[in-house]
Design brief:
Length: 247
């Protein structure tokens, strides 16, 4: 008897988060961007950047700057442009406009190239898992997740993609995960949700009765969490295939 196959088929489906979980090795996107700011020599402080980051996220949530046809590099250019404009307006970033534009482009390209490298490793994990499980993506995103998945050759891994901007529900609302469970046509207890955010992935998925895998990485803020709630806690996505055999 093939014990590996038997163990892996005890799970009926997987639900993945995208941002942070698959594209940054569980490093919060604010840190990915900040590391790029530092590497490009942008002369602002971390508190100033964090304020600009929050402003950028709120702006992209309210204004239709991201179009469905925008790929990841387009998104990063727009996001960093909003951030650096905010830093300039507050006179925290004191450079000429031509320099701001150049820094914006360099930061966006640095982040994009970083994501491509991380996704090469994530793709290897998804390759291993797709032969054993149907997989669904549930993501808080801007309306262009399908373009990004196609751009990175990830779209064929997921039977369904559920995006907050499309369905009108955002994590941590458990209903967005319920939509994913419904597409799998199995009880929640047979589904494993994989995410990097304790509050946005693990808590709502657990409340529905799903098993959960928390890929705990570099978070926005260091906090104490009840680590008994996730079914499994991992440090890296590459550990997932073996971990699933023990659920």
């Amino acid at each position: 008897m093939n014990t590996e196959k038997s163990d892996m088929t005890r799970i009926s489906g997987l639900i993945f988060d995208y941002g942070g979980t698959l594209d940054t090795d569980s490093v919060h996107w604010s840190w990915v961007l900040w590391d790029a700011y530092v590497a490009e020599g942008v002369d602002v402080t971390l508190p100033q950047f964090r304020e600009a980051y929050v402003h950028g996220e709120r702006t992209l949530a309210k204004e239709p700057l991201i179009k469905p046809e925008h790929n990841m590099l387009d998104l990063l250019r727009i996001k960093v442009d909003v951030e650096t404009r905010y830093l300039m307006e507050h006179e925290w970033l004191k450079v000429q406009e031509v320099t701001r534009r150049a820094q914006t482009e360099h930061i966006a390209l640095r982040c994009y190239n970083h994501v491509k490298q991380v996704l090469e490793r994530s793709r290897q994990v998804l390759d291993k898992l797709q032969t054993h499980y149907p997989m669904v993506l549930v993501s808080n995103f801007y309306g262009n997740i399908h373009t990004i998945l196609h751009d990175f050759h990830l779209d064929h891994y997921f039977t369904t993609v559920i995006e907050s901007a499309v369905v009108g529900i955002r994590k941590p609302d458990p209903r967005i995960f319920q939509l994913g469970i419904d597409t799998l046509h199995v009880p929640a207890s047979h589904v494993v949700v994989v995410g990097d955010s304790y509050s946005k992935d693990i808590l709502p998925a657990s409340s529905l009765g799903c098993k959960t895998v928390w890929i705990r990485g570099r978070e926005w803020d260091e906090k104490q969490y009840d680590e008994s709630l996730p079914t499994i806690v991992l440090q890296h996505l590459e550990q997932l295939p073996e971990a699933l055999m023990h659920i």
